[in-house]
Fold:
Amino acid sequence: MLTFVTFNQATPIQQATFTTYNKAWVEQYFVLEEKDVYTLENPQASIIEKGGEVLLGLDITGNSVITCAILNAGDDIYELSKMGMNQDHKGKGYAEQIVNAAIEWAKTQDAKSIFLESNRILTNALYVYEKCGFVEVPMLPSPYERADIRMELKLQ
Structure:
């Protein structure tokens, strides 16, 4: 079971995993895009100062093993984004834990809904999102070339 902390609660070493894990994950499957680089190099300005949050999942030793961002999209709608993890910890259920932690955080912000954009080749991730209650909705224009599926979870 993981413990979750926000970006500002995390140590600098833990904070650095947000960028490290996400860059590695994107580059494993796709190409880092301009929006990725800005967000990952400026989480305080691009996420937190705009009413979002970065969560980090810590194992029992205090190491960050998985991260994700919840972006404030306006009108009480949030976006689940930038989920990356230490590849040595795959298959331990951490993705489901952090998605549920992100949902709970969004509820504390009185979010109406959470959406995410992904790619259909990421079948394991899509399975986790479905398990957490997300359903596919029509795709809207996206800032990401790689996005070909949009999912949403209604909270209200």
